[in-house]
Amino acid sequence: MQAQYREAITIHGISVRTNNRTESAPGGHIPALWQRYLTEHLQPDAQIVAVYSDYASDVNGDYTLTIGSARQQNAEAVAELVAGHYLAFEVQGAMPEAVIQGWQSVWAYFADPASEPRAYRSDAEVYHGPDSATIYIGILPPAA
């Protein structure tokens, strides 16, 4: 895990409004959204980015997930990974299992009261290939 500042990026794709409670039960919306993106919206040679935004509150609240790329084709939704400070969690392995395990590491890390406070403005999964991704979690800027 590494702290870094990221510039804003705009993602064009498809989205769903959900929460972690819904996604932890059978019938969550995220697997169907990914299936739809990969079959109807995937663009060759475009880097896939999944942006988590519009947080209602915290890890327990609703959020919007937008899957897409920086290319503006076949977009039904637009989301922004806002500029700011992020912790980067690298994941390697077969997808989606590696990203699911990555999120479990993220939740465990932030369960520690001594961890940096999450910003809940935007987070992202940036895919580098079929078996490599980075999960970016927005954090509050360090105190000056």
Please, could you describe this protein's structure?
With 144 residues, this protein is α+β, with helices and mostly antiparallel strands. It is 22% helix and 42% strand. It has an eight-stranded antiparallel β-sheet with strand order 1-6-8-7-3-4-2-5. The longest helix is centred in the C-terminal third of the chain and has 15 residues. It starts with a strand and ends in a 5-residue tail after the last strand. The chain contains three helices and eight strands. The relative contact order is 0.23. It has one domain: Regulatory factor, effector binding domain (Multidrug-efflux Transporter 1 Regulator Bmrr, Chain A, Alpha-Beta Barrel). InterPro entries: AraC_E-bd (IPR010499), Cass2 (IPR029441), Reg_factor_effector_dom_sf (IPR011256), YobU-like_regulator (IPR053182). This is Transcriptional regulator. Pfam families: Cass2 (PF14526).
Q: What's the average pLDDT?
A: 94
The low-confidence runs, each spanning 5 or more residues with pLDDT under 50, are none
Count of DSSP helices? 3
- Report the CATH superfamily: Regulatory factor, effector binding domain
CATH level 1 name: Alpha Beta
- Kindly state the number of beta strands: 8
As for the CATH topology, it is Multidrug-efflux Transporter 1 Regulator Bmrr, Chain A
Major beta sheet summary: 8 strands, antiparallel
Report strand order across the widest sheet: 1-6-8-7-3-4-2-5
Radius of gyration (Å): 15 Å
Number of domains: 1
CATH architecture: Alpha-Beta Barrel
Strand content: 35-45%
Domain AraC effector-binding: 1-140
Protein name: Transcriptional regulator
InterPro entries: AraC_E-bd, Cass2, Reg_factor_effector_dom_sf, YobU-like_regulator
